[in-house]
């Protein structure tokens, strides 16, 4: 008598329908679609820029400028992506960048040269991240409130340090990194730093236990705790990571502008959150990609550049960014309701 093999069943004991893909394959497919969609939007923007201002937009110097400007906010966005994936938010990133940049450019700090400026910027960023992390993870404060308080405090301290004045950098080794002579094969040093941070961020999120724990905490914090993950410590590490990225971005901004100002990093929190959302990171946590966030940064930077070349006012740019954020969230909600 011929025996027939039993059809495979899923974890509930049901037979999956024909053509049904496993969950991870479905996630990968959706991620690929999002990435391709973002690449399509970026390509469309490049075409628009090439049509409206062909001589200016497609100029090598302008493209280098777009990448350089995107690099600073891009580094901040990498840290923000980790925080949002874990189910948190950080409204203080712009203020931390400002505080780190002015603290790193005081006369006393500049006496220690390149290393002193870099070290101070990073330490201030990590210190602010530590305060955020302790308040949120161990003080049980809502991330929105804790980081909003840090935003106000860091801005106020930055203003107090500078007394409202611009602090000019006089260290040649720092200023030289912003010159064209420092470009390697036509690539600005800041772009290379952004690339390195992006690669490290991608590897940490996708190839390490830390990345998997971050996703687990954002997906279901209680389930992650029951699985043996120290949720509070993980959240502390994530805000430390965000602060580190802010410190690195502050140093990059000092190189780019050759100064430290209390107005540095203005609205960086908006740009970083928007870029992460556009890239597919869920505001509720549990899902996100570094690749998508980077593409989101490039899209926003390109939009800003096109608007500037066409002499459109900054308020129009902010309106456009707000509309894009709303559209991205609506798409996320629609996608989540159909999966």
Indicate the proportion of strand residues: under 5%
- Tell me the major beta sheet: 2 strands, antiparallel
Topology-level CATH name: ABC transporter involved in vitamin B12 uptake, BtuC
CATH architecture: Orthogonal Bundle
Overall 3D form: globular
Structural class: mainly alpha
Q: Uncertain runs with pLDDT below 50, 5 residues or more?
A: 1-24
Helical coverage, percent range:
over 70%
The whole-number mean of residue pLDDT values reads 87
Radius of gyration: 22 Å
Oligomerization? single chain
Keywords: Cell membrane, Membrane, Transmembrane, Transmembrane helix
Membrane topology: Multi-pass membrane protein
Transmembrane segments: 33-51, 63-84, 91-108, 114-135, 142-162, 182-205, 236-256, 290-309
GO molecular function, one term: transmembrane transporter activity
In short:
With 339 residues, this protein is mainly alpha-helical. The protein is 72% helix and 1% strand.
Structural notes for this entry:
With 339 residues, this protein is mostly helical. It has one domain (54-337): Orthogonal Bundle (ABC transporter involved in vitamin B12 uptake, BtuC). 72% of the residues lie in helices and 1% in strands. The protein has 15 helices and 2 strands. It has helices at 23-52, 54-57, 60-85, 93-104, 107-110, 113-138, 143-162, 172-175, 189-207, 209-219, 221-226, 231-257, 268-278, 290-309, 314-337; strands at residues 167-168, 259-260. It has a two-stranded antiparallel ribbon with strand order 1-2. Helix 9 packs across helix 10 (209-219). Residues 1-24 have low confidence and may be disordered. GO terms for molecular function: transmembrane transporter activity. It comes from Streptomyces muensis. Its main location: membrane. It is found in: Cell membrane.
């Amino acid at each position: 008598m011929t025996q027939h093999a039993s059809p495979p069943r899923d974890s509930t004991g049901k037979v999956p329908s024909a053509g049904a893909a496993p969950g991870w394959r479905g996630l990968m497919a959706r991620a690929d679609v999002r990435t391709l969609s973002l690449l399509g939007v970026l390509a469309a923007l490049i075409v628009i820029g090439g049509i409206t201002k062909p001589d200016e937009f497609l100029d090598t110097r302008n493209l280098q400028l777009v990448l350089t400007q995107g690099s600073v906010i891009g580094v901040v966005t990498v840290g923000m992506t980790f925080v949002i994936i874990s189910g948190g938010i950080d409204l203080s990133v712009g203020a931390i960048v400002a505080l780190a940049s002015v603290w790193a450019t005081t006369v006393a700090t500049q006496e220690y040269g390149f290393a002193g400026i870099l070290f101070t910027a990073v330490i201030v960023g990590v210190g602010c991240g530590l305060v955020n992390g302790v308040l949120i993870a161990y003080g049980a404060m809502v991330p929105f409130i804790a980081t909003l308080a840090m935003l106000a405090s860091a801005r106020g301290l930055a203003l107090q340090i500078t007394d409202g004045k611009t602090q000019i950098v006089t260290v040649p080794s720092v200023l030289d990194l912003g010159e064209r002579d420092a470009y390697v094969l036509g690539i600005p040093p800041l772009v290379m730093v952004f690339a390195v941070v992006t690669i490290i961020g991608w590897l940490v999120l996708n190839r390490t236990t830390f990345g998997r724990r971050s996703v687990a905490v954002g997906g279901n914090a209680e389930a992650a705790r029951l699985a043996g993950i120290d949720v509070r410590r993980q959240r502390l590490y994530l805000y430390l990571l965000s602060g580190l990225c802010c410190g690195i971005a502050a140093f990059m901004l000092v190189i780019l502008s050759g100064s430290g100002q209390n107005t540095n990093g203005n609205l960086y929190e908006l740009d970083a959150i928007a870029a992460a959302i556009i890239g597919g990171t869920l505001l509720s946590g549990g899902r996100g990609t570094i690749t998508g966030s980077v593409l989101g940064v490039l899209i926003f930077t390109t939009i800003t550049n096109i608007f500037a070349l066409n002499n459109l006012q900054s308020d129009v740019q902010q309106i456009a960014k707000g509309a894009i954020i709303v559209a991205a969230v609506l798409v996320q909600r629609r996608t989540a309701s159909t999966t």
